[in-house]
Amino acid sequence: MPTHRVSASALERLRSEHLDLTTRGRIEVAQRIGRAREMGDLKENGDYHAAKDEQGHMEARIRQIEAILENHEIVETAPAGKVAIGCTVTLLYDGDPPDQIERYLIGHPEEKPADPSVQVMGPTSPLGSALLGAAAGTKVRYQAPNGVLAVKVVKVESGD
Length: 160
Fold this sequence. Notes:
Layout: E1 4-6, H1 8-37, H2 46-70, E2 72-74, E3 88-93, E4 102-106, E5 119-121, H3 126-131, E6 139-144, E7 147-157
Parallel strand pairs: 1-2, 4-5
Antiparallel strand pairs: 3-4, 3-7, 6-7
Helix pairs in contact: 1-2
């Protein structure tokens, strides 16, 4: 089972979400299923099937969170100047104009950047792994599905 490397804030948010889903969430979906059952024939009962689908999605999310909570490692704030898990990196692809920069938080998919325009990139993705250890001004090449791409690390910001 892989170790999930997450920030302390992401771990706390996951614990809160787990508690909410396993208490309030389960109670509410059970009540919806109960109300839908009272409507009669379950074969053609759209409310019942919708509530059961919601229950299935919620239970899958609970299992996903439990897997992270059971096997995680808290990642400390990234060191200044180098791309590491927990930092935000600003990139520019070779050949793109300067207004086409992209910003990524290097981390677990469960991380939620403070800035909604920042996307999360896994450190084990092709680009994410190529970026680890790079500094601002460095050009990094990585193997993408459509060939080798190059990006320039414009800026590296430490995590908070």
